[in-house]
Amino acid sequence: MSNVSNSLKQLALQKFKKDFWGVFSFGFILFVGVVSVFAYAFAPDNSQYANQMHLAIHSKKPGFKVKMLTIPSQIKTNQSSFNALFFGEKKSDTEIPISNYTINNQLLTYVEYASDGLKGVSKTISLSVFPNTSVDNYVKEQSFLFGTDKYGRDLLSRILVGARISFFIGFVAVFISLVIGVFMGSLAGYFGGKVDAVIMWVINVTWSIPTLLLVIAITLTLGKGFWQVFIAVGLTMWVEVARVVRGQIISAKEMQYVTAARALGFNNFRIITKHILPNIMAPVIVISAANFAAAILIESGLSFLGIGAQPPMASWGAMIKDHYNYIILGKPYLALIPGLCIMSLVMAFMLIGNALRDALDVKG
What we know:
Elements: H1 2-18, H2 20-37, H3 39-42, E1 64-71, H4 81-87, E2 94-104, E3 107-112, E4 122-126, E5 139-144, H5 155-191, H6 193-208, H7 211-222, H8 226-236, H9 238-252, H10 256-263, H11 268-276, H12 281-305, H13 316-323, H14 333-359
Antiparallel strand pairs: 1-2, 1-5, 2-3, 3-4
Subcellular location: Cell membrane
Protein name: ABC transmembrane type-1 domain-containing protein
Family: Belongs to the binding-protein-dependent transport system permease family.
């Protein structure tokens, strides 16, 4: 039996490897996952939430470059390198976009950056605020590959950090939906009768409520926040899993191996977990991939409505909300870039779901 199981897994793996878009989507999702975990290591702005604001350079086009003067702060921040790597660096230094600077008599004179041909304000500070190193080490040309948002923050850094929310909400929401859905579906399908009637009533009631409306209600109950959105989305996605599991178990419990397990005296818990569920997981895996995509879209919608991830936390949906009016103001990329990121990640999960469906189809 073990050899047969292994051969079926190998056959499914071989079929999956032959699907170009499935393999490509898997690689893309893996890439986004790595970027999500180590976002601050890749982001040009590695401050917490990539939230360094420079209003003087707001809404600049992709490829914009400017000289950035960093004035050291006297405030010491106690932060471990591990915490800075995964949660961003707590910066107390002041960054100022400048046009040029001069040094004279232990004084640094700089001209603040001003756009539209205007002349910036000239200011002077003492060189004593800098440690015993060259001032040139504190003036660097900074490039903004994706430009800046309306607050002057690096758009590329916000995109990278925002990927964390969109990616991990899929994992948390799907995990919650699997735990509840498999449990409820198993009870309804295996025991039937009144248990099935009660669970199906709950499923039908939950199913009749619009998903976004239900998520909004749960979010308002739990409060606005990062984890509240994750839980709210997960609590609305278990219904589809439960229906699939219920239908599969109704068919599987009449199979001969289940009858044999009952004859051997195995309890219901072991029959469900050890014998039935492992044989019906193929459609559950496929629907989980689709739920990943749905969770990302729901979170984006919630962030767009302002009840998802809260500022200053970066979120692709919130970025679209902040900049959708720039589409008619000649700077559509501010909303299109996060929109394309959402679309590409959702498409990848849908394609990998289709590939898994074909690979796990034993009749194919």
